[in-house]
Specification:
The chain is globular and about 70 Å long. With 424 residues, the chain is mainly alpha-helical. The chain is 69% helix and 0% strand. Helix 15 runs antiparallel to helix 16.
Length: 424
């Protein structure tokens, strides 16, 4: 008689540590930055706490409040660091009470921190999006600290190599330290200079929640909700900015589909497959209201406004067949003119396939191959177009090729199943 291999509790502990880090890292780094006044050191402290958790939790069990445990460890390490630097007199009063609490068996919950860490996350975004940094460095640093993404995930999003990305993050932290950037939301005069970067980071954060770059889960609703929350805070901070309202509209329309985006097995469903009765109509209403605020500004549709208008076309269509694809194509034409990119052209090609047929779209997709080499969505779109054209063998090969490219595990399973269905 054979027995199943024993479950290794260390594996479970490591998974919990990784999950807690994804969910809590932004708040922890933000709070530490406010206390220490040093963004780079705050991230190092948080990383040291993470390493300690990876060692301790698999051996001793998961603490009742993992986020508070990480915060307590990081703060104790900060105290040790100040002692070594002989700066304790300046900073110890901010930490000593919490450090003593960290020694207790029942630590103070992270959510109860009177320092309002939630508000600190937006400050952290503004710090990482300071104009002293190049555009891609702002994105890389914020995705690392706010979204909790790995270097590999960020490199994939920004189409960079991992070593180049890591060097950029190191240089960015050094630049912030050299410029003595304060941990605060900038005054009104300075906000517009950072707005575009802040919006881009919030949208990339939402995108990670809406369609996770890798891992077992195709969706991370908690991450998407955090992005929406940040968008709303930003709109309160800068009322009357239409692109903020547009981004909120876009996120509301897309998040309305969360309940319908995966099946009973946890695998993603296409727009055509989704049960629209499960779409969140209140989120759609909030999205439409946000778009009305954009229209009221009377400044036309910008980058996020055009995408929100496209998302609204999907949100208001009673069925997939009722989707206003000609309008979507016109909106993509405008978006390509305003902000040309290979990804925009890929999405436009999908709209072309619905208006002019898959053959016309296939030619457009082929033109994008040099720019989007190794990009899973491009290969998956090509596979779908070949399937619609009845080129079964070619479509099967493309679905299998897409499954081998980087992406989350649920998408990989769907791609493999689609290839298997064509071969059956």
């Amino acid at each position: 008689m054979t027995t199943a291999p024993a479950h290794d509790p260390r594996d479970s502990g490591h998974r919990v540590v990784e999950a807690v880090w994804r969910d809590q890292s932004a708040r922890i780094v933000a709070a530490l930055t406010r206390h220490t006044g040093d963004f780079s050191w705050a991230e190092d402290l948080a990383q040291e706490a993470l390493v300690e958790a990876l060692d301790a939790w698999p051996r001793n069990g998961i603490p009742d409040n993992p986020g508070a445990w990480l915060m307590s460890v990081a703060k104790r390490r900060a105290i040790d660091g100040w002692r070594r630097r002989e700066r304790m007199a300046q900073r110890e009063p901010l930490f000593v009470t919490e450090a003593l609490q960290a020694e207790a068996s029942d630590p103070v919950p992270l959510e109860a921190d009177p320092d309002r860490i939630d508000d600190d996350v937006l400050r952290l975004v503004f710090v990482a999006c300071h104009p002293v940094l190049p555009a891609q460095a702002r994105l890389a640093l914020t995705l690392r600290t706010v979204a909790g993404l790995t270097s590999e995930q960020i490199a994939r999003v920004l189409l960079m190599t991992v070593p180049a990305l890591q060097q950029r993050i190191v240089r960015a932290k050094k630049s912030l330290a050299a410029a003595s950037v304060p941990f605060e939301v900038p005054d009104r005069a300075e906000r517009p200079a950072r707005l575009a970067s802040v919006l881009q980071v919030i949208y990339l954060l939402f995108t990670e929640g809406y369609s996770s770059a890798e891992g077992e889960r195709p969706l991370r609703p908690d991450v998407a909700r955090e992005a929406v929350r940040l968008g709303r805070q930003l709109e309160t901070l800068m009322p009357g900015e239409p692109e903020i309202s547009a981004l909120i509209a876009l996120m509301e329309f897309q998040s309305s589909r969360f309940a319908a985006r995966i099946d009973a097995e946890g695998l993603p469903l296409t727009l055509e497959q989704q049960d629209r009765r499960r779409w969140d109509r209140s989120a759609i209403s909030r999205g439409s209201a946000a778009l009305r605020r954009v229209d009221a500004a009377d400044r036309g549709l910008g980058y996020y406004g055009l995408q929100a208008a496209i998302a609204e076309c999907h949100a208001v269509a009673p069925t997939f067949a009722d989707t206003d694809w000609p309008r979507i194509l016109r909106l993509y034409d405008a978006l390509e003119t305003l902000a040309p990119s290979a990804v925009v052209r890929l999405n436009r090609a999908v709209a072309v396939s619905m208006v002019d047929g898959p053959d016309a779209a296939l030619a457009l997709v082929s033109q994008l191959e040099p720019e989007l080499t190794g990009f899973r969505p491009l290969v998956a779109v090509r596979a779908e177009l070949l399937e619609r054209l009845g080129r079964v063998d070619a479509a099967t090969a493309e679905f299998l090729a897409a499954a081998e490219l980087p992406g989350n595990a649920a998408e990989t399973e769907v791609l493999r199943r689609r290839a298997a269905a064509l071969r059956a």
